[in-house]
Amino acid sequence: MSHLRFLTAAAVLGLLALPAIAETDVPLRHWVSPIYWSPAAPEPDETGNAKWVPMSTREALAASAPLPFVAITPCRIADTRDGSYPAGYGPPQLSGGGAARTFVIPSGPCPGIPSSAGAYSLNFTVVAPGGTPPGGYLSLWPAGAPQPVVSTLNFTSGSILANAAIVPAGTGGGINLFVNFSTDLIIDINGYYAGTGLVTSVNALTGDLTLAGGGGVTLSTAGNTLTINGPTPSGSMTIGQPGDTTLLGSGYTETWPAGMDSWVPMSTTNAPPNLARGTHCSVWTGSKLFVWGGQDIGYIGLNTGGVFDPTTNTWTPTTTSGAPSARRYPHCVWSGSKVVVWSGEESSAANVQVTGGRYDLVGDSWAAMSTSGAPAGRITAAVVWSGSRMVVWGGLDRSGGGTVYTYPGAGGRYDPVGDVWTGISTTSQPTPRSGPAFVWTGSQMIVWGGYTGPNTALAPHNTGGRYDPVGDTWQDTTVTNAPSARWGNVAVWTGSRMIVWAGASGSSPTWVSYNNGALYDPVGNAWTAMATAGAPSARTAPTVWTGSRMIAWGGVAYTGSTTTTFNTGGVYDPAANRWVAATTTVNAPSARYAHQMIWTGSPLNEMLVIGPDNAGYVYRPLSMYVKN
Question: How many other C-beta atoms lie within 10 A of the C-beta of residue 616?
């Protein structure tokens, strides 16, 4: 008697195949996958011999070595109806009764699937043509293994049926598919199974553990103690993306990083020319990353840009027709329908611009901004989107070749619908400054820190202010328990508090960098110090907010006249006031500063890194969840 060599997700979870639907446009959707999968050794046949010879060491793993599920954003690997898919993953449809068709999953159009994966969590949808006889079936198995005598999905005339299955990776990471009647097929993936971070062996003589790696885990061989850097595990646990709304809504609590974070390069096809740029602006539109302007490695201003879609790993260049003139340090915000780009400076004499533009992603077109009533041009200002206006305050003007620094404190509010500027009150505003940390709370813009003075005698600040654009009023932030004065610091908004971390002070060439910070509560107008244990080393570095934690990565440290760049980082949990994990350096980008980072939010939950080299990167963290 023959046996199936793998379990379908329906068998593991007691799920039924999805019912037939009327649409021919099959949506990409989530499905539930087991958090572990155990490779099964081949069973003997009636003669006592193995029924097939394993084609790779992955298939030969003992059933006692379960592999954890590594979730990715659901992605469509193949669609035999769509000619835009790469050869082998698109048309023609599967030929009924013919030879099996092989799909090599790591080589397909879905990024981030390693060749070392032991199995894949896949969803198969059959779109059967009219006239298909009854009794159609789809069978699938690892490439290099014999075809099983069981089916994964049955279909008939006009069927649009789906079923999920966990399929072991075969020869070269491929899987085979066979149908007895010709049909179209769609293959989606939501993750894979790999041994990252597992305990791979136990020494029976000493009890010492051999770890395959993974952040958040330490081992004391003397005391035979394994320590997981998080709360004591108990109850039902699973792995998911940070801030996973599905898990949180299902009664799970996000606890600590899973130690299975990863880096993946972005595609460079159709990327903006001179992607190796710094001092550019970037915004997240809710589904895509917009990058524009900045300077190339020769410090020459740019007026090119691009839009990156992380779901397809593709770039689309922005038109230069009607775009603002080339400039460094432009400011930009996403209005919900357009990107608003304003100010910046020319690369030659550092002449600051007061012009800007509104970019329409759908039409790939620019519309100029009015300069009537606009504030003075500037760079390194605090710029936020209030929900209806772009709010600009602070910044630096170094026109005349950068030898004279002025700090235009008066700002402005810009309405992109009416193309109208309105001034900002200067009553009770903070001391005008360059490069303050800033956040938008949902009702106020908070600015803090930054510097004034010439480059040889910078004067950092530990003061700030809260601006209400509706009432056009300012309030101070307290300095009690505030971090020390600094510039180059960054901030994120947690939903209730502003986190300020890192930065530097001093003047050239005697700098000093920090790895401390504090959390600011605008309701109580109070500061709380951040823990420093486990924090990344002192530096100035960008940060992002994941919805539950802050991630800091890269940056530069100033020690006297010496500078050091980093490709390391850390994850901070404000609820526990602790640094919970370091970011992995495996496949991480090279050490850098002057880069920008964007958090995509749900459902992707990825960090995008752009600049200053000629590539972009995607950072994918995973979190542990415990059932409540």
Answer: 25
CA dist 242 and 586 (Å) reads 20
Give the rounded distance of the alpha carbon of 489 from its chain centre: 22
Picking from 625, 596, 617, the residue whose alpha carbon sits closest to that of residue 278 is 596
Q: What mean pLDDT is predicted for residues 90-95? A: 94
- Residue 358 is assigned to a structural domain of this protein: no
Degrees (nearest 5) of the Cα angle 264, 267, 272? 130
Q: Is the pLDDT of residue 224 over 90?
A: no
Same domain for 210 and 71: no
Q: How far apart are CA 616 and CA 491, in angstroms?
A: 22
Structure tokens at 624: 């542990």
Give 302-324 pLDDT, tens digit per residue.
Answer: 999 999 999 899 999 999 999 99
Q: Is 101 part of a structural domain of the chain?
A: yes
Alpha-carbon 82 to chain mean position: 28
In the chain, the N- to C-terminal Cα span, in Å, equals: 43
Q: How many CB atoms lie within 10 A of CB 210?
A: 10
CA nearest neighbour of 8 among 196, 95, 113, 138: 138
Do residues 327 and 344 touch, judged by C-beta distance below 8 A? yes
Secondary structure (3-state) at 245: helix
Choice among 35-49, 342-356, 377-391 with the minimum mean pLDDT:
35-49
Average model confidence (pLDDT) for the chain? 84
Q: Any idea what the Cα angle at residue 583 is, between residues 237 and 442, rounded to 5°?
A: 80
**pTM of the prediction?**
0.66
In sequence order, the β-bridge partners of residue 139 are 178
Peptide bond into 109 cis (omega under 30): no
Write the CB contacts of 46 (distance below 8 Å, at least 6 apart in sequence): none
What is the arithmetic mean of pLDDT over 64-89?
Answer: 86
119/146 same-domain check = yes
- Torsion region of 268: left, alpha or beta (phi above 0 gives left; psi -120 to 50 gives alpha): alpha
With beta carbons less than 8 A apart as the criterion, state whether 132 and 208 touch.
Answer: no
Q: Which domain holds residue 172?
A: 9-193
